[in-house]
Amino acid sequence: MVSKSYIVDSIHAGVARLEDPDGRFFEVPATQLPRGARDGHVVTPVPADETDSGSVRFAIDQAATEQRKKVIRAKLDKLRGRSTL
Known about the structure:
Blueprint: E1 6-12, E2 15-19, E3 25-29, E4 42-49, E5 52-60, H1 62-79
Antiparallel strand pairs: 1-2, 1-4, 2-3, 4-5
């Protein structure tokens, strides 16, 4: 099964706003995110507890987050007229 990934849009007052691959936003309790999760991180759902199949937590996908940062940096450099070579 391929797991969806989500982008952390914001975290405020104990609520995390996530963006799905289709550009839709939804909110989850920030406690479902791992410690250290911040705006811009890519997260994927993982079962929170093997005994509770209805509960979901998220894990940071470090590789996807770094790839996303590189793409954004390249776009900003292009807009600013900087070469990435």
